[in-house]
């Protein structure tokens, strides 16, 4: 609901903008002359029209930055680093000859969003900043505060950056276009992949159980876990499938979520879907939901779903798994990190991942997530609007894939190991299928020991961790939790997903509408209560029909109308 809560504040901001715009409306004229003169100079022209061209003179820019904890660098060669002088800013200065000046700085999340809002209200926004949601981007465009980056993208986005955006089939770039103009550099949210079933393989082996495919297979395995107690918990003390009580389904990549079971019935909770006739409809009120809920309620009644799931906390859920009280949960390809602590508590435990439950044809259907949730914008009138695109090309292409200087790479690796960012622009630009895109190349390198074909500099760090896990397997030593979790998610599970029969459906709307700020909290509460009451048997599945009627009357129909109008307007 984060995007929706931000919507309320943006409505207030819009009313204040008219006053502040008077003072910043002439910024274009101040720079046109110098920009025109520079464009006739070959050195400046190359810098302004190529991804990695270096400016002949230092270009300074103001930026809204997310705060970095530089205190963790104490006692290292980098202990004097700060927001304007660190590994990243020195890299930008060396390669592009640019220098940041901090306009404002705030912690990621609410603090940063508030700083962005204050800058917009004052009409004094930085030359470059990340805005946290689409509604803020819309507001900046409507008030003519940001630069058109269409030309900058065409000329200064590297070929690889363009290839990355192309991997989303146009969905990401289109989200930042208004009237055909690219008004921001959108971040990318890589595919979370399908929901993954994680099971205790050592329990399965003890009971002679085969790998699951259908929902019936999954039910049988969980039933055997509970009845035959391979974990030695004692009669009746082994818990069924661990499920989230706040996000039962509907979150892309949702941890402890039942998306896979709903998808078997063609149901996609919480998603705005195309009804087949070009209209957006809310997935949670569609008729396919009822049989899915009926099945899940049956599983709960049999004890196949944790009977106490409605009152569990996040810590409770994790403890059930790492402590050996449950041997089944649905997560994502990175689910190994969820249960990594199991190896510390019980070194003999073995978790394994499956693409399940599958449909009769062996496929698994998933809904895709929001391909872009934040945006990098440039102040209208800034003399070098291409700079933001050049920085993205340098950071997410050159440094990641092409930089070969050992000392430079060592510095970035040191920062990474210390969990320090330092970049003036904290976004993410990566391939849609990033988590399994190069898995075969990594597997080949691990088998041969030849790392020459690894694609990115990040791959080398990952290789060393995975190799550590493989070496421990060969020697019979107990693997450490970190190397096991990394290998299991990024090699074992990524390979499995890459070769699986995955079908994707794309929701058609991820934004907000005017009525959502007031009505969505109530509608969301109604929806959650419906899930919990039907699944736990407090109400029959027939109560779903009453929920649908109430949802529509309580504002759902109004919001649905607004969603379709928003789609049509774009």
TrEMBL record:
Keywords, sorted A to Z: Signal
Protein's name according to its UniProt entry: ABC transporter substrate-binding protein
SUPFAM superfamilies: Periplasmic binding protein-like II (SSF53850)
Annotated transmembrane regions: none
Superkingdom of source: Bacteria
Signal peptide: 1-30
């Amino acid at each position: 609901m984060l995007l929706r809560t931000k919507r309320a504040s943006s409505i207030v901001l819009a009313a204040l903008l008219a006053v502040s715009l008077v003072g910043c409306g002439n910024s274009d004229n101040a720079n046109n002359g110098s920009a025109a003169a520079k464009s006739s100079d070959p050195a400046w022209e190359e810098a302004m029209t190529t991804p990695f061209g270096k400016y002949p003179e230092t270009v300074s820019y103001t930026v809204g930055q997310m705060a970095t904890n530089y205190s963790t660098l104490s006692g290292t060669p980098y202990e004097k680093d700060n927001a304007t002088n660190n590994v990243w800013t020195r890299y930008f200065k060396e390669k592009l000859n640019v220098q940041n000046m901090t306009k404002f700085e705030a912690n990621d999340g609410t603090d940063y969003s508030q700083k962005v809002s204050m800058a917009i209200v004052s009409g004094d926004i930085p030359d470059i900043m990340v805005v946290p949601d689409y509604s803020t981007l819309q507001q900046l465009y409507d008030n003519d505060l940001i630069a058109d980056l269409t030309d900058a993208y065409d000329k200064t986005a590297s070929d690889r950056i363009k290839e990355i955006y192309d991997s989303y089939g146009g969905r990401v770039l289109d989200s930042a276009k208004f009237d055909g103009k690219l008004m921001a550099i959108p971040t990318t949210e890589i595919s979370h992949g399908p929901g993954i079933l994680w099971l205790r393989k050592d329990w399965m082996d003890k009971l002679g159980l085969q790998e699951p495919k259908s929902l019936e297979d999954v039910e049988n395995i969980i039933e055997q876990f509970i009845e035959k107690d391979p974990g030695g918990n004692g009669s009746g003390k082994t818990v069924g499938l661990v499920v989230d009580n706040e996000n039962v389904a509907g979150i892309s990549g949702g941890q402890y979520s039942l998306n896979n079971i709903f998808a078997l019935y063609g149901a996609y909770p919480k998603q705005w879907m195309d009804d087949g006739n070009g209209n957006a409809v809310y997935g949670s009120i569609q008729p396919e939901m009822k049989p899915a809920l009926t099945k899940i309620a049956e599983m709960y009644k049999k004890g196949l779903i944790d009977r106490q799931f409605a009152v569990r906390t996040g810590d409770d859920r994790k403890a059930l798994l790492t402590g050996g009280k449950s041997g089944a949960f649905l997560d994502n390809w990175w689910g190994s990190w969820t249960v990594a602590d199991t190896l510390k508590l019980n070194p003999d435990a073995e978790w394994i991942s499956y693409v399940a439950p599958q449909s009769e044809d062996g496929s698994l259907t998933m809904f895709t997530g929001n391909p872009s949730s934040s945006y990098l914008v440039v102040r209208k009138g800034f003399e070098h609007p291409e700079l933001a695109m050049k920085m993205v090309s340098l950071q997410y292409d050159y440094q990641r894939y092409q930089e070969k200087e050992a000392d430079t790479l060592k510095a970035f690796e040191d920062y990474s190991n210390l969990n320090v960012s330092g970049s003036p622009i904290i976004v993410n630009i990566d391939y849609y299928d990033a988590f399994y895109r190069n898995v075969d190349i990594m597997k080949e390198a691990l088998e041969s020991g030849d790392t020459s074909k690894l694609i990115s500099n990040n791959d080398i760090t990952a290789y060393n961790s995975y190799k550590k896990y493989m070496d421990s397997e060969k020697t019979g030593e107990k693997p450490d939790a970190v190397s096991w979790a990394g290998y299991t998610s990024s090699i074992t599970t990524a390979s499995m997903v890459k070769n699986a029969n995955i079908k994707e459906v794309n929701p058609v709307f991820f934004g907000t509408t005017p009525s959502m700020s007031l009505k969505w909290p109530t509608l969301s509460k109604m929806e959650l209560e419906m899930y919990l009451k039907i699944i736990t048997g407090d109400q029959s599945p027939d109560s779903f029909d009453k929920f649908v009627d109430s949802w529509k009357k309580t504002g759902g129909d109004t919001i649905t109308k607004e969603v379709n109008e928003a789609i049509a307007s774009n």
